[in-house]
Design a protein that fits this description.
Order of helices and strands: EEHEEHEEEEHEEHHEEEEE
Structural class: alpha+beta
Distance between the termini: 39 Å
Largest sheet: 6 strands, mixed
């Protein structure tokens, strides 16, 4: 099993774990303050929490989509773990929308197929997985809309039309432009203000 932060850290002397074993191990992790854990490609991946201004961007996304949610759906950015047993993945999306019945459970392992929208904000440590592995997994699970906010390149990529290998279509625009989010939302997302704050140093 591998724990990945900015640099990979390998735990030695352990046998490869099943997906359930990885979930159990994840439950038992004593993470340092400011870190979260996901299961990606058979590894427990630990990454730092987002930079401060990411919170502003997440709030802007939630506010713009809130009035257009499908009936019975909620949108949030609180830390929850959505599992995809068929592909042995477990993700904690930066922003997610899901039917409220998906969230009505006392389990900390939520059904990834209940998601109607996911947005990930990339960081240097998570960017590759956000742009590759998660595209395939969210698409295979049938998540209708997957939005990648590439904070390093300052552009938004909207993935639509899910199928078994990911998404059939993708639209990318630089921050500052508007993206149309189709059904089940049917609204525009204005990406103005998503950029990093000016470097004050």
């Amino acid at each position: 099993m591998t724990l990945m932060t900015e640099r990979p850290i390998t735990i030695r002397g352990t046998e490869p774990l099943s997906f359930e074993g990885l979930l159990d191990a994840l439950d038992q992790l004593d993470l340092p303050d400011g870190y979260r854990a996901e299961i990606i490609k058979g590894n427990i991946v630990v990454s730092p929490w987002s930079k401060g201004y990411y919170s502003r961007v997440m709030k802007l996304v939630r506010r713009q989509l809130e009035d257009f949610l499908p009936e019975g759906h909620l949108i949030d950015s609180s830390p929850l773990l959505f599992v995809f047993p068929g592909v042995e993945r477990a993700y904690g999306p930066d922003i997610y929308a899901a039917h409220e019945r998906t969230l009505e459970t006392d389990s900390n392992r939520l059904d990834g197929e209940g998601l109607s929208f996911v947005a990930e904000l990339t960081s240097p440590s998570t960017r590759i997985d956000d742009l590759t592995d998660k595209v395939e997994v969210y698409g295979k699970a049938g998540v209708p809309v997957y939005l990648v906010l590439d904070m390093q390149e300052e552009e938004a990529s909207l993935h639509l039309d899910p199928y078994e290998h990911g998404y059939k279509s993708r639209l990318t625009k630089p921050f500052g432009e508007k993206l149309y989010i189709p059904d089940p939302f049917g609204c525009e997302l204005d990406t103005a203000g998503f950029q990093a704050p000016p470097d004050e140093s």
